[in-house]
């Protein structure tokens, strides 16, 4: 029987890498060989931090790299995602195919493999690729390697993308410019009484009366539909959070696995942070009372205007609580040479003693700290899961992608926080933060949900059971060219 060897290929952005590396580490713990595929640019940024295998030093995990086609000084920011997507598809396909079917004479570029072309690993028997890389899935199947898709967004947002053709058919998309954003949206099963126009991704909004829908929306919708071609779809979620959405997605996929939150199922994954974390956050939090600090972070990619910065910052100060704010150097859009006042405001906050401003924070450590009372977040799915399992109330200020739907579920379904979308006013920030910090009902809901999610990832919980089923699925794929579902 051939040893199972899974090639795990994330889209090369921090949030995608983090969760798929937790997934890879969990596979290693289940006895599977794993090759984790970075881009050359990201592997250089990680340096020696990526060369560690598993927490136990398992020889079953290795890191290889392929080019993304962009120069090293390219920003690779959220505004450039589609450029990165196109460049990766064009430049990586040759080296990628060589990893799936390596020549015995050429080998492959490896971060930690130099002895032989395969690095002592068996041939790749299965691919788990980011669902936004359908070309990677298609190439694997062409070479006889069965492929599984992995999406890093929430099930509810994935379902909305899957439902978009129906929304176009019903005339729900695109939204008219200047229309009522609180208008209910029909056509997303299970969410008919929940979703409003403002809860769908910003790509759904017409910029003005003359423009048609953003063509990027059609691209994203097609990427979601393409997941049905894979042998299965993996989602980093749990039935406790998204049972209804999962039930509506399942019939449209060949198989479906809900195996999250993965960071809680494999907490000791190798370092994957492309940003250097400030190691003084925990010590600073230690000096504060329980549930007295607001933690604020808008993720690793988001950019905001100077006016938005001013309103968020002023609202946090006015709320009156100590706060820990992740303020990346590239987060605020300002003209060159015109950021002196902004930097002075940040320095002033950090010197006040009531605030700590850092370029990046160890978020999971921060959220589990007793001093944190609420989390002001962009509502990215990774952040939502990290807050959920720690029982931390959230204030959601979503910006793009799946964040609009995630924040709606926080405020209207799970009731573990407040949704502040489409508003950036200091008075609203102040009021919303205070309510999240002081509401006993929100805190009780957050803690109750945390208890359930922890049960899901524990032994015999729903996510743990699904992961066991997934490992068996992968091993069966690795011994047969046919999908288990078709035999």
From TrEMBL:
<comment type="similarity">
    <text>Belongs to the UDP-glycosyltransferase family.</text>
</comment>
<keyword id="KW-0808">Transferase</keyword>
<dbReference type="InterPro" id="IPR035595">
    <property type="entry name" value="UDP_glycos_trans_CS"/>
</dbReference>
<dbReference type="GO" id="GO:0080043">
    <property type="term" value="F:quercetin 3-O-glucosyltransferase activity"/>
</dbReference>
<keyword id="KW-0328">Glycosyltransferase</keyword>
<dbReference type="GO" id="GO:0080044">
    <property type="term" value="F:quercetin 7-O-glucosyltransferase activity"/>
</dbReference>
<dbReference type="Pfam" id="PF00201">
    <property type="entry name" value="UDPGT"/>
</dbReference>
<protein>
    <recommendedName>
        <fullName>Glycosyltransferase</fullName>
        <ecNumber>2.4.1.-</ecNumber>
    </recommendedName>
</protein>
<dbReference type="InterPro" id="IPR002213">
    <property type="entry name" value="UDP_glucos_trans"/>
</dbReference>
């Amino acid at each position: 029987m051939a040893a199972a060897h899974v090639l795990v290929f994330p889209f090369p952005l921090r949030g995608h890498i983090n969760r798929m590396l937790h997934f890879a580490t969990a596979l290693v713990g289940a006895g599977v060989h794993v090759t984790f595929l970075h881009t050359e640019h990201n592997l250089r940024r990680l340096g020696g931090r990526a060369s560690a295998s598993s927490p136990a030093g398992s020889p079953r995990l290795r890191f290889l790299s392929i080019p993304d086609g962009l120069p090293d000084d390219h920003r690779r920011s959220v505004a450039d995602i589609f450029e990165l997507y196109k460049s990766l598809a064009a430049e990586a396909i040759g080296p990628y195919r060589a990893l799936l079917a390596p020549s015995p004479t050429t080998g492959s570029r490896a971060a930690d493999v130099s002895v032989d072309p395969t690095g002592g690993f068996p041939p790749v028997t299965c691919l788990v690729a980011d669902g936004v890389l359908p070309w990677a899935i298609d190439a694997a199947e062409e070479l006889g390697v069965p492929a599984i898709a992995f999406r890093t967004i929430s099930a509810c947002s994935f379902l909305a993308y899957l439902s978009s053709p129906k929304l176009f058919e019903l005339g729900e998309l695109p939204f008219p410019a200047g229309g009522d954003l609180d208008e209910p949206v029909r056509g997303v099963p299970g969410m008919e009484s929940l979703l409003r126009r403002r809860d769908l991704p910003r790509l759904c909004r017409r910029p003005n009366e003359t423009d048609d829908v953003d063509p990027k929306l059609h691209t994203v919708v097609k990427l979601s539909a393409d997941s049905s071609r894979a042998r299965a779809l993996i989602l980093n979620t749990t039935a406790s959070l998204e049972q209804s959405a999962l039930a509506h997605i399942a019939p449209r996929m060949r198989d479906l696995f809900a195996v999250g939150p993965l960071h809680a199922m494999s907490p000791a994954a190798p370092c994957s942070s492309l940003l250097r974390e400030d190691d003084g956050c925990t010590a600073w939090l230690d000096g504060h009372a329980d549930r007295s600090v607001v933690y604020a972070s808008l993720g690793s990619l988001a950019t905001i205007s100077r006016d938005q910065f001013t309103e968020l910052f002023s609202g946090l100060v006015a709320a009156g609580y100590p706060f820990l704010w992740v303020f990346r150097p590239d987060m605020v859009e300002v003209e060159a040479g015109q950021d002196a006042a902004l930097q002075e405001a940040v320095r002033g906050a950090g010197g006040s003693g009531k605030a700590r401003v850092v370029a990046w924070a160890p978020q999971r450590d921060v959220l589990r700290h007793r001093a944190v009372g609420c989390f002001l977040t962009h509502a990215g799915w990774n952040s939502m899961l990290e807050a959920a399992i720690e029982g931390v109330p959230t204030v959601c200020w979503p910006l793009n992608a799946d964040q609009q739907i995630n924040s709606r579920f926080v405020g209207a379904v799970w009731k573990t926080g407040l949704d502040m979308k489409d508003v950036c006013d200091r008075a609203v920030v102040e009021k919303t933060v205070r309510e999240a910090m002081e509401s006993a009902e929100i805190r009780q809901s957050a803690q109750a949900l945390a208890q359930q999610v922890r049960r899901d990832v524990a032994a015999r919980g729903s996510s743990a059971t699904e992961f066991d089923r997934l490992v068996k699925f992968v091993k069966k794929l690795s011994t047969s060219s046919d999908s288990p579902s078709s035999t």
